[in-house]
Amino acid sequence: MAPSKTATLNLRIDPVLKEAARIAALREHRSVANLIEVLIRKHCEEQGISIPEQQALFEQPDHE
Prior knowledge:
Blueprint: H1 15-27, H2 32-47, H3 54-58
Helix pairs in contact: 1-2
């Protein structure tokens, strides 16, 4: 399995929404970060926004 890279996303959010995300994550046995990632992926899928595989983002072009 290829090593995965992550990026940091800092944002401000209403404390009530933060608590709701924490509870939702607990109920699904996820971290809040993973819950947010799942929600973003679901939203993008519904909106027809493609998300490339992470490996494709970091591949070096062939120099032939």
